Backbone:
């Protein structure tokens, strides 16, 4: 019976996540439109909510085309990688005190590993398309992911030190006395920068910067394979929002309202913030992005880690 | 008559230096000193004019040709089958100079002036493409506007102007193969090598369809990683034969074609054309017409600069501003529509006036806009121009100095961004600009940021000019009382026979413009835009030459993008502010 419940729960989570990712597309388009003095999708269904469904129907019925010059097997595999890794990473996100698929004792590390693996999706897509713009996009992705992965991990170590655990559930519980954002706001900033870069959204969308390299790594993709990249991107937005809630904003903790609702509200806020970033900030140049990462973010992450460690030692002594 | 009076100092200098057997003066309607010189002396004379003379002619403003073979009434000019026209410009003298060289049909060869002006490169290609005149010593003479497989030279008088006078189009297999073969990319053709000492280069075809090239424009990039070793612009994808069309439309019915040259400029495009025709016809327009024209032109300057502003931010990756600016442009189009009845291409100026008088209540619309816009501009200032990422992306990118700008024929905001405050509206006032109080914004560094800065400051100046138009709009007729005004004033048509005849001729044939040559340039949205019209006394122009600002601007791309990254190239393209229709015509 317990196994059955687990399977049911896993399936429910999967379904929920995919639907949420799709609704996020609608949410982002409406929000961007609001900020940009436009309407956004408002025709299909109430408030344009069914726009996503219409898009899905369209995208499913498109010809499943693989360019003859592409590396076929890798080309097909690449978009799946990002969706699979993102969904796997969700497995250890605690939505509420007893609402999680798996309670890993290395939750933070698993999240980092999955988000690093997702980078392969972009790189492989760029390479296998056998298209110059895609290749440039893939190259940019590779450099960007490798650089930003480094201090993303480092920025989270402060939180791990404070909570004394890699387990995400225990990290949330360690925030009963106060959210980690209060002491780790620098780390939060660094994490946010790195996370947005990892999900390659504006201002860090260099691998697909449409003004420079058409659509970057997914230039040759169409139909549902393109759709998977799209869903993957929104899943990763959801994931980094959920993760920052867990790590910095006390997860499901909050008064009066049920824990799960608190978790959703907080996540929604972070998601909106990420969308606002996209609406507001222009794109840096590739070398500026690299310099920003290695020369500013990395030292900052290290200093933050050192200080946290020092304060903790002093506290305990 | 008046021959002695109209001899300009430069003509005298040249006559003294080279003698009357090499230099021969021609009088033109536009009073620009026009000299026929012999082919063998051309290089000597232009290098004298550029390098030795006091207050030199540093800019090759335009280079074009005329097929003279069917032109009537040119007895006073030296015999010529094809005439090359070199239009030079001196900023020191604030003067133009037109040099003409007569060529015989059996010997269409000319020494190239690319050694003296690098910007002659594209102009000479265009003359070769359009007239089949060879330039000896040109680094890479090729078809620039037509496709490489095109047969014939379109601006020759014996080349058909429409498809109906050509053989029906067919595409047999061998021709298709030939056309496709002609599309094959060959780096050596463009003067690039496939590899360096230790690496092979990547060639990237940016365009003709690319999100950031603002139309159909191709840049061939030779890349080492993402660094640009060479960027070679390739134009001609938007060529519609606007100059050829000028030769078969009546003087009046050509006006709508001019709208579509710089399609963001609207009636601004009509202005140099109608000014040139009016010069040929000797029409003086009433003050009200001048002021109405200025007001509409400045509205279109704002509309065009708003598009620039938005796309500049967008090309650097800022998603939102373009929506705000397009919304403002819509507001402006609302006013333009109320006045002219159309939005982007009103074709509203007429020979000798404008199409209608201003509608009742136009003041309210304009005043509302003048009150609405400043607050928006201030918002954009902090949103875009003060944004540190925008600064970082555009500061020091795509720099050139004033000397280079003059050398390459750059005009407009691109020139003023280098610090030279040259504005045709100030230095050669037309249409009554001398009556307006405005400043000429300049930059200092000549980089992408400054080019944007100058344009944005120009929006403020245009607002001020529009306010002055609003407050001091003269009363009076909206078209000149002149027989060649088209359409002619109607009031007296049915009362006296002379006016009736004029009206009938003007409306059936179209106006008959007296023979002559006139070139008029205006400070258009993107730089100096001019029409060089030749009439041989007919109902159509004998030759319509459109000199557009974007053409020389694009030619500079290789110079200012070398060694930068692909993303910088996009910022440079955005900062140049061109439309391909303006380049290819």
Residues:
């Amino acid at each position: 019976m317990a196994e059955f419940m687990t399977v049911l729960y896993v399936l429910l989570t999967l379904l929920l996540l995919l639907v949420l990712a799709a609704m996020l597309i609608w949410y982002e388009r409406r929000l961007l439109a609001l900020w940009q003095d436009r309407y956004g999708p408002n025709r299909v269904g109430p408030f344009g909510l069914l726009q996503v469904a219409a898009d899905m129907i369209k995208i499913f019925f498109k010809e499943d085309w693989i360019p003859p010059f592409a590396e076929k097997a890798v080309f097909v595999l690449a978009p799946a990688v990002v969706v699979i890794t993102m969904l796997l990473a969700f497995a250890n996100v605690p939505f509420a005190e007893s609402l999680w698929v798996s309670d890993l004792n290395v939750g933070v590390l698993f999240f980092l590993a999955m988000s690093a693996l997702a980078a392969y999706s972009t790189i492989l897509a760029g390479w296998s398309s056998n298209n110059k713009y895609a290749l440039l996009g893939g190259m940019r992705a590779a450099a960007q992911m490798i650089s930003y992965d480094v201090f993303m991990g480092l920025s989270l170590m402060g939180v791990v030190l404070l909570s004394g655990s890699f387990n995400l559930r225990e990290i949330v519980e360690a925030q009963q006395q106060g959210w980690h954002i209060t002491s780790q706001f620098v780390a939060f900033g660094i994490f946010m920068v790195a996370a947005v870069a990892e999900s390659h959204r504006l201002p860090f969308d260099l691998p697909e910067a449409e003004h420079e390299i058409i659509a970057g790594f997914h230039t040759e993709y169409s139909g549902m394979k393109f759709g998977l990249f799209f869903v993957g991107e929104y899943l990763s937005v959801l994931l980094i929002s959920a993760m920052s809630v867990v790590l910095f904003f006390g997860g499901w903790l909050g008064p009066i309202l049920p824990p799960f609702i608190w978790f959703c509200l907080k996540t929604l806020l972070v998601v909106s913030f990420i969308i606002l970033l996209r609406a507001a900030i222009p794109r840096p140049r590739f070398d500026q992005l690299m310099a920003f990462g290695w020369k500013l973010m990395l030292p900052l992450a290290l200093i933050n880690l050192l200080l946290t460690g020092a304060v903790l030692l002093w506290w305990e002594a | 008559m008046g021959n002695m009076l109209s001899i300009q100092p430069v003509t005298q200098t040249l006559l003294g230096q080279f003698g009357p057997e090499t230099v021969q003066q021609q009088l033109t309607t536009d009073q620009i000193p026009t000299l026929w010189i012999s082919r063998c002396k051309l290089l000597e004379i232009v290098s004298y004019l550029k390098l030795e003379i006091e207050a030199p002619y540093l800019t090759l403003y335009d280079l074009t040709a005329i097929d003279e073979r069917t032109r009537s009434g040119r007895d006073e000019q030296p015999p010529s089958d094809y005439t090359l026209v070199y239009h030079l410009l001196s900023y020191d003298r604030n003067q133009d100079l037109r040099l003409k060289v007569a060529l015989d049909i059996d010997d269409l060869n000319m020494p190239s002036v690319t050694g003296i002006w690098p910007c002659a490169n594209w102009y000479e290609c265009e003359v070769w493409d359009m007239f089949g005149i060879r330039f000896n010593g040109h680094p890479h003479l090729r078809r620039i506007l037509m496709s490489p497989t095109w047969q014939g030279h379109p601006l020759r008088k014996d080349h058909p102007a429409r498809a109906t006078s050509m053989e029906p189009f067919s595409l047999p297999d061998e021709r298709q193969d030939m056309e496709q073969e002609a599309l094959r990319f060959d780096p050596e053709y463009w003067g690039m090598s496939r590899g360096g000492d230790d690496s092979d280069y990547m060639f990237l075809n940016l365009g003709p369809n690319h999100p950031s090239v603002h139309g159909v424009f191709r840049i061939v990039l030779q890349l080492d990683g993402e660094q640009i070793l060479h960027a070679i612009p390739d134009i001609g994808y938007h060529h519609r034969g606007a100059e050829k069309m000028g030769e078969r439309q009546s003087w009046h019915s050509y006006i709508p074609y001019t709208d579509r040259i710089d399609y963001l400029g609207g009636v601004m495009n009509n202005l140099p054309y109608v000014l040139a025709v009016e010069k040929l016809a000797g029409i003086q327009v009433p003050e009200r017409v001048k002021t109405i024209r200025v007001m509409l032109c400045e509205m279109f300057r704002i509309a065009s600069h708003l598009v620039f502003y938005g796309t500049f931010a967008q090309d650097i990756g800022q998603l939102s501003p373009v929506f705000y600016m397009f919304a403002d442009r819509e507001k402006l189009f609302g006013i333009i529509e109320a006045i002219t009845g159309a939005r982007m291409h009103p074709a509203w100026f007429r020979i000798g006036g404008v199409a209608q008088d201003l509608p009742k209540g136009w003041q309210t619309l304009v005043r509302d806009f003048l009150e609405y816009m400043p607050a928006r501009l201030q918002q954009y200032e902090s949103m875009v121009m003060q944004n540190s990422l925008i600064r970082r992306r555009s500061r020091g990118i795509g720099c050139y100095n004033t000397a280079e700008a003059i050398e390459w024929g750059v005009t407009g905001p691109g020139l003023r961004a280098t610090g030279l405050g040259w504005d045709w509206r100030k230095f050669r006032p037309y249409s009554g600009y001398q009556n307006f109080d405005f400043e000429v914004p300049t930059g200092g560094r000549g980089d992408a940021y400054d080019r944007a800065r100058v344009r944005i400051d120009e929006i403020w100046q245009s607002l001020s000019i529009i306010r002055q138009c609003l407050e001091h709009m003269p009363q009076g007729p909206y078209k000149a009382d002149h027989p060649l005004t088209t359409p002619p004033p109607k009031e007296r048509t049915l009362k006296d026979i002379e006016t009736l005849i004029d009206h009938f001729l003007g409306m059936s044939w179209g106006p008959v413009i007296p023979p002559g040559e006139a070139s008029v340039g205006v400070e258009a949205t993107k730089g100096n835009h001019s029409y060089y019209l030749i009439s041989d006394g007919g109902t159509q122009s004998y030759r319509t030459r459109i000199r557009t600002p974007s053409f020389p601007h694009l030619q500079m791309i290789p110079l200012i993008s070398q060694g930068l990254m692909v993303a910088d190239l996009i910022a440079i393209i955005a900062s140049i502010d061109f439309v391909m229709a303006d380049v290819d015509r």
In short: Chain A touches chain B at residues 32, 35-38, 132-133, 136, 139-140, 202-203, 205, 209-214, 278-288 (CB under 8 Å). Chain A is about 70% helix and 0% strand. Residues 67-316 of chain A form one domain.
